[in-house]
């Protein structure tokens, strides 16, 4: 796995590692597949986590641990979508808006989780270079993936909130490549949000033969 931590190229004076490049590209592909409601979104997200886990394992324990959690949620998403994929006439899941109780639970979990993870990062400085933003992004990612697994339109809003911190944070710390990737994430999030929003209004009504999906 040493090749994952080797340099792929230099962009904007930033040394891009193979692990960063491949992981970011797979993350974009996974999000695009999520927009299309393809169940293959989950294996791609799992593979992205696996590659980054292999890159971090042995020298960046905290980062490797975070990827292990991401892979676990990806497995849950795969299982959940397999159970729900027949609900729509086109064979995919049916997007829906979360109930107010579900929204409150996710917001509460995000707030408590961010504080708990940030305090853990502060107690063990080797786990993170910037505890609070790192905890916010990590917990926000998990909440977004959970909402995606449940087919909630709010999963796009969660990703957007993650991007609002991820973009300026990466640029401010000199990670221009990662910052541009987060900008692309933002564009995909807006398009995906619109698509799921419109589909949620149609519910589980069957698609007429010959009608556009």
From TrEMBL:
Signal peptide: none
GO cellular component terms attached to this protein's record: plasma membrane
Molecular function as annotated in GO: nicotinamide riboside transmembrane transporter activity
Bilayer topology annotation: Multi-pass membrane protein
Regions that span the bilayer: 16-35, 42-61, 104-124, 136-162, 174-193
Keywords: Cell membrane, Membrane, Transmembrane, Transmembrane helix, Transport
Pfam families in the record: NMN_transporter
Compartments, record wording: Cell membrane
Family: Belongs to the nicotinamide ribonucleoside (NR) uptake permease (TC 4.B.1) family.
Name of protein: Membrane protein
Natural source organism: Streptomyces resistomycificus
